[in-house]
Design a protein that fits this description.
- The complex is a heterodimer of chains A (211) and B (195).
- Chain A has 211 residues and is mainly β.
- Chain A is built from four helices and twelve strands, in the order H-H-E-E-E-E-H-E-E-E-H-E-E-E-E-E.
- In chain A, the strands form two sheets. In chain A, strands 4-3-12-11-10-9-8 form a seven-stranded antiparallel β-sheet.
- By secondary structure, chain B is an all-alpha fold.
- Chain B has a domain of 108 residues: Leucine-rich Repeat Variant, CATH 1.25.10.
- In chain B, 58% of the residues lie in helices and 0% in strands.
- Chain B has seven helices and no strands.
- The longest helix of chain B has 26 residues.
- About 22% of the residues of chain B have low confidence.
- The chains are: A mainly beta (211), B mainly alpha (195).
Chain lengths: 211, 195
């Protein structure tokens, strides 16, 4: 449990700890990967003085990357993994580290947290802070040099519950949620300027961990 | 003649006993219903509208953890998490069976599963789900869930950012990529001058 508390401390190692405690996640080479539900909307102007919206989801991003850069098996998912990087993973293999390849990244900045430890050894940990998601379809530093890009920030909440330790192990459940992401995006097929973007992301998992 | 009479009497007796047993069986109440199992005994999918009649029934789920009324809170939670995990997997597929499974979970007795199903149906991205979402919203007394269902229906109805805007040919895309690669090369050759 102390390990968990330490992990929650806003560093890259902290998120890694969150991730490594997610049992629903894909386990590959003793590292855990947490599938992300990520979605958002771009707003843009169309002829006739109207504003319309178009969507993106983590599934669409996976499909785009599969069509352009990677050979993806069926069931490939976008996931958070070691080093707080975003990955493409299947149930059994890591296909790509999108952060290393320059296509996507995520960060969490823990601003407040609290933990209640019960006499029976169980605990509840809560955390909130700022998070950022970035996607650049062409790994280009300049936003407008990509075909598609967005950078979204917002507040997130993280909840973790842990059971008492039994035989050297304890059960932990974790959930991450951010509903108010906003920022800028770019779509080369719509306009050569930046567009307003909003979005949300969530992921949850639980599992049995060594004390 | 006497043995034949005896055989007839015995057969008649057996027939009578069989008839009594059969009547007793029919009159007895049915066995108690099996405990509720949200993972194995999925709730019936909403009645399909004409637009979604081609969506097949949910596929059977193998090795799903059973959640009964007698399970502990911990076991119940584990089953919910297992189902949300499956929803995540189904959401990444494109087959009608996966969509059907997701739609079935929209009426799960567990709120967490229903919420995960709303997330999954948006990831799945099929407009076939829209009538189901709207129908469930119309019959939902929870204003928060009603709004989430309608919001999901609206989200699915919108085009993808990857599909809107001017169409480009593969040659145009390749030219753009070459130009972008050239910019990257120039940037790397002169770091700090093109930030």
């Amino acid at each position: 449990m102390k390990l968990t508390k330490t992990l929650m401390c806003a560093s890259a190692a902290a998120l890694m700890a969150i991730v490594s405690n997610e049992a629903q996640a894909v386990v590959i080479n003793n590292s855990l990967y947490v599938p992300l539900n990520f979605k958002g909307t771009f707003a843009y102007v169309v002829a006739g003085g109207k504003i319309k919206t178009a969507t993106f989801t983590s599934k669409q991003i996976v499909n785009y990357l599969g069509a352009n850069y990677y050979t993806l098996p069926a069931g490939t998912q976008l996931a958070v993994g070691p080093g707080q990087d975003l990955y493409l993973v299947t149930k059994t293999a890591v296909i790509a580290d999108l952060t290393l390849d320059g296509y996507a990244s995520m960060s969490m900045n823990d601003l407040i947290d609290t933990e209640v430890n019960n006499s029976n050894g169980s605990y509840k940990y809560l955390e909130a802070g700022n998070t950022e998601f970035v996607f650049t379809s062409d790994d280009a530093e300049a936003f407008l040099d990509n075909e598609y890009a967005f950078a979204l920030t917002g507040t997130y909440s993280y909840t973790e519950n842990g059971s008492a330790v039994k035989s050297g192990y304890y059960n932990q459940s974790s959930s991450f949620n951010t509903k108010n992401l906003s920022g800028e995006g770019y779509n080369y097929k719509i306009t050569e300027s930046e567009l307003p973007v909003s979005g949300s992301a969530s992921g949850s998992a639980s599992g049995k961990l060594p004390d | 003649m006497r043995p034949k009479v005896v055989i007839v009497i015995v057969l008649a007796g057996l027939a009578g006993v069989s008839g009594i047993l059969l009547l007793k069986h029919l009159a007895s109440p049915p066995p108690a219903a099996a405990p509720v199992a949200i993972a194995e005994t999925k709730p019936a999918a909403p009645e399909p509208t004409p637009a979604v009649r081609n969506v097949p029934p949910p596929a059977p789920i193998a090795a799903a953890p059973v959640v009964t009324n007698t399970l502990t809170e911990e076991q119940r939670q584990a089953a919910i998490e297992a189902e949300t995990d499956r929803l995540q997997e189904w959401s990444m597929n494109d087959d009608p069976a996966s969509l059907s499974n997701i739609l079935a979970d929209l009426t799960s007795p567990e709120k967490e599963v229903r919420q995960a199903a709303i997330d999954a149906v948006q990831q799945f991205g099929s407009t076939n789900a829209i009538p189901v979402l709207e129908k469930l919203a119309a019959n939902n007394a929870d204003p928060e869930e009603k709004a989430a269902l309608l919001e999901a229906a609206h989200f699915i109805s919108l085009p993808s950012i990857f599909d809107v805007g001017k169409s480009t040919t593969p040659a145009e895309r390749e030219a753009r990529r070459q130009a972008q690669m050239q910019k990257n090369a120039e940037r790397q050759a002169a770091p700090g001058q093109n930030q």
